[in-house]
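Just wondering, can you check both lines?
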Amino acid sequence: MKIAILTDIHEDIVSLEKVFHSMQNIDKVVCLGDITGFSPLFYGHKPDANACIDLLRKNADIVVAGNHDLFTARRLPSYHIMKRMPDNWYELTLADRLQMTKNRVWLYQDEILPKLSDKNMDFLQNLKEWETLIDDNRKYLFSHFFHPDMSGVGKWFPFNGLEIKEHLRFMKDNNCRMSFLGHSHPPGCIMVNKLLWTHAEEETIKVKMHHKAVICPAVTRGKHPGGYIIFDTVRQTLKPVYVNPGM
């Protein structure tokens, strides 16, 4: 099976259309979240959240929620690094949220909320924070970020396997061979094992037994090339496909 895995679109419909136009002989399409989330301070494209969601609803087999999608839909995360986020979180002032979180979570001060259609808002409100897929007796985990912060609401980025022990435990408890994540917008792919992380930009990356997770490149154009990856479950290879040069 060949799975196209894309993530971090941030309402960039032009780049998302390039992604789908480039796909050939793909069996499944998986989106790892952050369909929405546009700030003119970080992105130069013209945002169109409705067009992005429409395209994914029609073409993606699995879609999970990212932190920006939860913010757009005014949802609280089921998995997060804080002990408790109050039910009235989105009614609190920015100052109250800053004081409560000690600046440990994203607050989206510069983000422009999109005006979504009812069906697209309903789509975001019902996305799960993680999904799995089984092929050839191997189970794969898809989420926007690492457990216990599956949607990436917290301001933390682990840099080695010791910092993701809870995620590895979650994978073991759910009998998952490998995990695919977004959120970080890396150049190319980041291959994760229990101890060391390696940055891979090869045309084809061989997945080895010690690889536990893959952090995937963003679709939207940024300082790094934008694109997606193709995961061949039979050959156990990853192929990055770039549709945008870095800025």
The mean pLDDT is 92.
